[in-house]
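re: ur question from yesterday

yeah so i grabbed the chain u mentioned. its 185 aa long if i counted rite. heres the sequnce exactly as i have it in my notes:
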Amino acid sequence: MSMQFGRSYEEFEVGATYKHWPGKTVTEYDDHLFCLLTMNHHPLHLDSHYAEETTQFEKNVVVGNYVYSILLGMSVPDISGKAIANLEIESLRHVAPTFHGDTLYGETRVLDKWESTSKDDRGVVHVETIGYNQDGKVVCVFRRKVMVPKQNYLEQRGGEQPGRPVPQPDKNWPGETPQGDPRKD
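ran it thru and got these structure tokens back, copy pasting raw so excuse formatting
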């Protein structure tokens, strides 16, 4: 039995909504590390004194690109795990702040899909992802277009888990019998 990671073109249904799981609690450490890795040193995200004294929220706000990155990552197993290419982020809106300690959840709706006009083994899926916090408050909305393979593309390249090696029996692991039970010494 294998777990699905992403979808082929045929498996997408216009109007379907995929609720991503699990959620992710955003810690102060996560936010600070992301800011430092990406060289966003705005004090709104890194300096709690600054945030308390000079902002309407009176506390640090999680950097928007991290919120987006979490939600994009959450959508990969349901949406783009088999993608050939991310073609476009059409729109990205931060509609409410995320704070340290908030938990983000995401879901993605299929808006449209169409077959490639140049290659018959792929298509494009147009999706909208929303992210919301533990209270159900939507914080981020983005739309993207993803080029995904058709079944025939996947079959030509090794199926559901292309490039996966086969474990080789040796002195530490004898392999499996046809029934799937480990062999006895």
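noticed a couple things. Residues 64-80 form the longest helix (17 residues). also DSSP finds five helices and six strands in the chain.
anyway ttyl
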